[in-house]
Amino acid sequence: MAEVSFLEKTFKLNKHGTNVKTEIMAGVTTFMTMSYILAVNPGILSEAGMDYGAVFSATVIASVVAMVLMAFYANLPFGLSAGMGLNAFFTYTVVGQMGHSWQFALTAVFLEGIIFMLLSLVGVREAIFNSIPTTLKKAVSVGIGLFIAEIGLLNAKIVVKAEPALALGNLKSLEAFIFFFALVIMIVLTAKKVKGALLWGILVSTVLSLILGVTHLPDTNIVSLPPSIAPVAFKLDFSNIFSLEMFSVLFSFLFVDIFDTLGTLTGVATKAKMLDENGNLPEASKALMSDAVGTTVGALLGTSTITTFVESSSGVAEGGRTGLTALATAGCFVIAAFFFPVFSIIPPAATSAALVTVGLFMLSTVVEINFEDITEAFPAFMTILMMPLSYSIAEGIAFGMMSFAAIKLLTGKGKEVSWVIYVLAIIFFVRYLI
């Protein structure tokens, strides 16, 4: 078929050991596990004073732009959208605690995107990615697995935030029942090697949630035009661009975004066995450019930082290996813009079960870590440990790099460490001190 040959020529499906059906199924699965962002991001940014509907549309457009670039430019199976944590920093810290306007915060995001585009062009971000030791790359994959499993358990309220740490939630609730029902379906179908196991689990548990009354069919028109972006688009405020406050906010956005993205790319690519013999990701610079452009476009249109989503691992787990997966995910975002009331019926418990299942899949690389060498094992352990405990991919990487540099240097193996890692470790250490 002509369309299939076009897809083969564009995405090199045979070379990557995949096919159109697998890639589209993977893309839909990625969308199903990250679709919550279309409800959550507008909700968070609306608390900063932004228009909910306008942010929803801006998030869709920026996500699609970034994923189309990821598909055709990088040919990688990663989904992108407004990053969780970064949107919370935008609303609750920059606007809430610091007292800046949301226009000020959007300007910081815009500048961040421009800087990242420049860093990607000269290869700085790719150099950082390539400098991460193979041991830490494998540990990042494991740490992200635990991190997204934690997100899934929290979203489903199987565990809840408590003092001093976490505690079990209400396991007798219907939501908990749907979560475990979906989880069992996904595990059983995976064991039977059924393609699209995660997607089927989400769909079946959504039907169950409708039957049990946990979710309901929308009582409004299921098809409508997306809200206008006019209330939030092109509202940048450059009046404080050279202030200390702008520098502080911009640095924070830069730090979290660069290491969240690098961590996600490392973890998902390691799990998908997409790294080359040197432990590097081919086309990493193009992937990083895609999220930089997405961030810049998103800020102009009215949404927070666009970043590569760790939920991309759900699509990779379903066999997604090329940009066709990202393109399919982008297509789902476009559809969601017109059918948002329908997508809103998917219960958090269903997508949460998918995250926990993917967390399990991502633990497999732990057996490839050399635990016989304590100078390799300890940094890996710190990386894995700190991601779920600090609730941050970036912080896990920071602790991993600091411990790797310190242990290697103090045990006479300092030459095994790249100078880039030493520089980053010092930066992280100084950051925590001040």
UniProtKB/TrEMBL annotation:
Topology in membrane: Multi-pass membrane protein
Alphabetic keyword roster: Cell membrane, Membrane, Transmembrane, Transmembrane helix, Transport
Organism in which the protein naturally occurs: Anaerococcus lactolyticus ATCC 51172
Cell location: Cell membrane
Transmembrane segment boundaries: 24-45, 52-74, 102-124, 136-154, 174-191, 198-218, 324-346, 352-371, 383-405, 417-433
InterPro entries, per the entry: Azg-like, Azg-like_bact_archaea, NCS2
UniProt keyword annotation of Transport present: yes
Family note: Belongs to the nucleobase:cation symporter-2 (NCS2) (TC 2.A.40) family. Azg-like subfamily.
Any Pfam family hit: Xan_ur_permease
Any single GO CC term annotated in Swiss-Prot or TrEMBL for this entry: plasma membrane
Record keyword Transport present: yes
Protein name: Putative permease
